[in-house]
Amino acid sequence: MDLVLVRIDDRLLHAQVALGWVNFLSPDLILVADEKTAADPGLTQLLRMGLTSSVELAVADIENAAGIVKKGASDTRKCILLVRSPRHALRLLDAGVRTESINVGGMHFAEGKRKLLPYVYVGRDDVEVLEQIASRGVKLTAIDVPGNPSYDLLKLLRKGQLEDD
Amino acid sequence: MTRMLLVTHGDLGSELVSTAQLIVGPQEGVKVLSNKELSSESLSDALQTELLSYGEDETVVFVDVAGGSCLSACRVAQSSPTVVRVISGVNLPMVLEFFHYRGRLPFDELVERVLTKGRVGIQAM
User: Fold this and answer.
1) Which domain holds residue A8?
2) Is residue B33 within 8 Å of B43, Cβ to Cβ?
3) CATH number for A47
4) Which of A12, A19, A46 sits opposite B71 (nearest CB)?
5) Alpha-carbon distances of A8 from A83, B71, B76, rounded to whole Å
6) How many domains does chain A divide into?
7) Which of A25, A36, A103, B53 has the most CB atoms at less than 10 Å from its CB?
8) Is residue A165 part of a domain?
9) Residue B125 within any structural domain of the chain
10) What is the dihedral sign for C-alpha A32, A36, A40, A46?
């Protein structure tokens, strides 16, 4: 399986992915690695509504999603892999998924979190986990939709830099 | 009077409403929510709070695009005490039709009318 995009996004599969990234990358498969979504067939059906019919949608918990990726190692299909948080991404890595880079596309506002970009807010726990992911040699890039500027997330974290809207 | 709740990306909802009001005059019972900078949970919570505040008022929720975070957030509407229908693909003809016919048609007929207008409002010249 060719992981063309591994993305941390608390909205998981939504318009930026279903329209923006799908049009840009033409994936064969979107894999949503998320317990909560996997346990909710109604939500899965809703997510499918927004997808063009040429893209397959799979929803699985983290362990099964990792299994799908590893089992399909020799498969050449292009896959977008989505998780909701840095912690979920780290669990994917722990479960044996290998990727050179992870896209941070949506970590939205919550009380007590620091703003790095309009679509990236981080709490202390997020910073810790993102640092752990980076320490495994995975490049973390912040970008919301194709064509917009992208940022080295670690640099943003370390500078503590605030970006205006 | 049937309420309108728009849940959209960016400023689309507020622009649709203000544009419609330029055409048909000021409207009451309209609320707009944007997903700007919000997580799915925050948007769902905002939507739920809004619907709960309507008591048993009939409400049509308009969403811009299917498959987005706005429509996903609208799942909370299913457990709302309000009589509610969620419609995606909102366009200006639908909003105008809604304003014209609410209060004149029963809820289900209003919804059908709006759905039909949304489709026939699209024409190639």
Assistant:
1) 2-159
2) yes
3) 3.40.35.10
4) A46
5) 5, 20, 24
6) 1
7) A103
8) no
9) no
10) negative
Give the pLDDT of residue A73. 83
Q: How far apart are the first and last CA of chain A?
A: 36
Residue range B72-98: mean pLDDT, rounded = 91
Domain CATH for B36: 3.40.50.510
Q: Do residues B70 and B63 touch, judged by C-beta distance below 8 A?
A: yes
Position A82, amino acid: L
**Cβ <8 Å between B75 and A42:** yes
The encoded tokens of residue A37 equal 């979504």
- pLDDT in the model for residue A160: 57
Which residue numbers in chain A have pLDDT < 50? 161-165
Query: How many independent structural domains does chain B possess?
Result: 1
Q: Is residue A48 situated within a structural domain?
A: yes
Q: Which of the 8 DSSP states describes residue A16?
A: I
Contact in structure between B87 and B59 (CB atoms under 8 Å): no
Give the whole-angstrom CA distance, residue A17 versus residue A50. 10
The residues pairing with A120 across neighbouring beta strands, listed in sequence order, are A107, A117
pLDDT in tens, A14-53: 989 998 999 999 999 999 999 999 999 988 988 888 888 8
Q: Which residues pair with B30 in a beta bridge?
A: B4
Contact A12 B40 (CB under 8 A): yes
Neighbouring-strand partners of residue A121: A115
| A112 touches B: beta carbon within 8 Å | no
A164 belongs to a structural domain: no
Please give the residue of chain A at the shortest CA–CA distance from B40. Answer: A11
* Residue range of the domain that includes B111: 3-120
Touching check for A19 and chain B: CB below 8 Å?
yes
Q: What is the ipTM of this complex?
A: 0.70
Check residue A161 and give its pLDDT: 45
How many angstroms from the chain centroid is the CA of residue A156? Answer: 18
